[in-house]
Design a protein that fits this description.
CATH topology of the largest domain in chain A: Rossmann fold
CATH superfamily of chain B: Aldolase class I
Number of domains of chain B: 1
Structural class of chain B: alpha/beta
Shape of chain B: globular
CATH class of chain B: Alpha Beta
Largest sheet of chain A: 6 strands, mixed
Radius of gyration of chain A: 19 Å
Distance between the termini of chain B: 32 Å
Strand content of chain A: 15-25%
Strand content of chain B: 5-15%
Structural class of chain A: alpha/beta
Helix content of chain A: 40-55%
CATH architecture of the largest domain in chain A: 3-Layer(aba) Sandwich
Oligomer: heterodimer
Shape of chain A: globular
Number of domains of chain A: 2
Amino acid sequence: MTMAEPTESGRFGDFGGMYVPETLVPACQELDRAFREAWGDPAFRKELDHLLRTYAGRPSPLTECHRLGEELGCRILFKREDLNHTGSHKINNVLGQALLAKRMGKTRIVAETGAGQHGVASATAAALFGMECVVYMGTVDIERQKLNVFRMQLLGAEVRAAETGSQTLKDAVNEAMRYWVSAVEDTHYCLGSVMGPHPYPWMVREFHRVIGDEARKQCAELLDGGVPDYVVACVGGGSNAAGIFAGFADTGAQLIGAEPAGGAAVGRAVPGIVHGSKSYLMQDEWGQVLEAQSISAGLDYPGIGPEHAHLAASGRARYEPVTDEEVVEAFQLCSRTEGIIPALESAHALAWIAKMREEVAGKTILVNMSGRGDKDVNQMMDVLGS
Amino acid sequence: MTGAVETALRARIDSGGKCLVPYITGGLGDDWLDTVRAVASAGADVIEIGMPFSDPVMDGPTIQEANDRALEAGVTPQTILDDLRHADIGVPTAVMTYGNIAYHMGFERFANSLAAAGVSGCILPDIPLEEMGEWALAADEAGVETVMLAAPTAPDDRLPLIVERARGFVYGVGLLGITGVRSALAASAVEIAGRLKSVTDKPVLVGVGVGTPGQAVEVSQVSDGVVVGSAVVQRMLDHAGPEGVAALVGEFRAALDEA
C-alpha cells in the first residue's frame, strides 16, 4: 500500500473527517483548497525546498550507529532529524504551513505545543516570515520545558498557558482551537501533528514526507538498493512517524510506532472524535477523553493521527507501548554509545528496539531520530538524581 | 413532522413574542433540576441542557468550569438522562453536548436514550453539516430535533443547506468566538440573524455572546429570540440557587416582552 490522499471527506479508511465547530468549517475548506493548489504549484514547492535546504539544513544525514547496534544485536540507522534547525523534525511542517499561510494572506499563526518543539519551530517560522505568533502550552509542560518557553519568547512569540484540564498538550490544542475560532479571519492555525480536522492530517504528513523520501534514497545507497527490515518512530500524534513511514509504506519494511505506555491510543483501539477527527482515542466508558501520562511532554496525548489508526486497523503498521523506565534507559544508552543525546520522544523508538531485541536480532532497523535531547537534560537531571 | 421544540418556539413567535432558551449545565449542583423547573416557570420557552464533555472546544471559561465541576461530582450522560426522565419540567428540552459523547454511546442508542428521557432536541456543535449524516439519520428516526449552528463565517451558499437540515430551530452563532458574556453585542449577531431570516421560515435564535437582557433585546429585533448560556451558568457557579437563576431568566423574559 501507499500513503496516498485521503478521500474527499478527508478520510483514511474509517478515520479522519472534519469534526469542527461550524465557525471553522469554511476555514478548513479554504485551507484544503489552498494546500491543494500550492502543493501542485512548482513555484511553491521550489520555494519550500529552498528554505528546507538553506534554512533548515536539509537533507538530514543518515547515520549508522555501530556501537548501539552492537549493544542491541542489530544494525541501526538513524535518520538525523535532530540535526535540523530548531532541533527536531517539526521545522519541516512549520516552514510549509507558514509559507502557505503567507500565500493565503494570513498575518498571524497560532500553535499548540507539548514539549515545546513545535512551538519553537512555529515561533521560528513566524520570525522568519515576519508574522505574529501565539503559542499555547499546558501549565504542566511550561514547568517541565522552561528552556523552550524562553526560546519561544526570544523568537518573539507570545506563550500562553493552557490552564484547563490536564494542562498538557490536549488542553493546549483545545485553547489553540478556541483562539482560532475567535480569530479565524486573519490567523492560520499551525497544527503541529498529523491530527485535527481535514486537511491537517494529510497536509502535515505531506510536509514531513521529505523525511521518508530522503531516507529511502539514503538507505538504498547504503543497502545496495534495499530497504531496512524495520522502520521505527515514536508516536504521540504521529507526525515524525507519518513522515518517515510515507517513504516506506510501499515496501516490505515493517513499520513500527512506539507509543508511551501511558498514552497508548492504538493499544486500546477505541475510536472516538476529538480535536477535529475520528481516530483511536483514550476515553472512559462515557466518551470523556482521558489524560495521557508520559515522561515525554511531546507524546503526552490521548489520541493519534487518523492515518495511523488506519495503518493500524489495516495491519500495515504496528503500534506498541514502551514504559517511561524503558525510555530512560534507552535515553542513556544512546547518549553513552553514540554521542547523541536523543529527545525523550525519540528515545521511545530506541526503547522499542531494546525491548524487542529478540525479534529484531540481526535485522536492519531505520530509526527516526526525530529530535535532540538538549531540552530534556534538566528533567533528566531530576529523574536520574545526579 | 414538527417536534416539541419547534412547536413551543412557534407558539411564542405566533403570539408576537420573542423566544428565550436558557442553557443549564446538567448535573451542576444537587438542585439542578429545581433550577431547570424554576427557569421554566420564569419564562423559558425551551431549555438547553448541557451534557458535560472533557474537551468542550466551543465553550469559554464559564461553561468549562461548570463542566469540570459537574464531571468531578461524578455526573455522566446517564445520570443526567435519568434525572430528566423523572422531571416534570413543563417546557421542551434540548441536550447540548459534543460529538464524542453521542458517538461513544452509539448514535442510535444515544438518540433513543434522549427520546426515552423525554428530551426533544439535540445540539452537537462539533458535528458540522458535512459529518452530520449518520447522526441525523438516527436522530430523525428517534424523533429528536437536531438544531444546526450557523456561523458568521458561512458563505451565502452554505446557509440554505444548514437551515434545510435544521430541526427545532436554527442557532445563529453571534460572533467569531466561543461561549461567554461580552460587554457589548457583536455586530455579527444582528447580521447572522438577518442572513438566516432571509433564507428560512424556521425559528432563528442567536446565541454565543448574548449575555444581558439589553443584548437579547437588541439582537431579537431581527432574530426570533436568543439562547443565553454563560450568564445563566455563572449564576449557578455562584450558588445563586434555583430562585437566583430564575430571577435572571425572568429579567431576560421581561426585557424581551417589553421590547
